[in-house]
Write a structure and sequence with these properties.
The protein has 211 residues and is of the alpha+beta class. Helices cover 52% and strands 20% of the residues. The chain has one domain.
Length: 211
Amino acid sequence: MSTPPAAPPTAKPEVFRRAAPVVLWWAWLVFALINVTDLALQGSGHFAVVVAAVVVAITGAVYACALRPRVVASAAGLTVRNPVRDYRVPWGAVEAVDIGDWVRVHCRPAPGAPGGKTIDCWALFAPARSRLRAGRRAQDRAIASGSRVPDEARGLMAMTAVQVMARRMDERARAERAAGASGGAPAASWAWPSLAAMILPILALAVVALV
């Protein structure tokens, strides 16, 4: 058993994210649409408007925290989309990709800077308990099979989906650097659409509640 090789420098962009937050977003969106529609058809008065504003405010937060976060590996480098901040890291600046509680992108220090930067990827949460459970399941499968499993296959069996993603990104970074990818300082920017999706409904809710 082996993972697919890291994408070559000219490969199309890869998107890394967990499935559960996306499912949560669509489930919440359906729930929100049903409730707002019901309020529009049957509700009336100040209370209905406040409830609708609350639903919209929660929807903005779920969008920012569940649907938006992802990591995109493109020809230019890694783009880390967190709820309110975006980071763009050229391949030549990616020192390594590993895992703590989140997947972490370690950046090489820019010229003249005292040290590099570490970026946590909100979309790729990997708690220690899930990693331990994956390791135990792999060990149990190896024992149940009654056969000698190669070390590489056993290591892959013990990895969670997020760990596999981190490994692929790290391999891609090494391949891109070997191909002569340019470096540079990571660029950070505010995710204004995400901020607007959270802040504007809250302001609207405050106005509605006070009227």
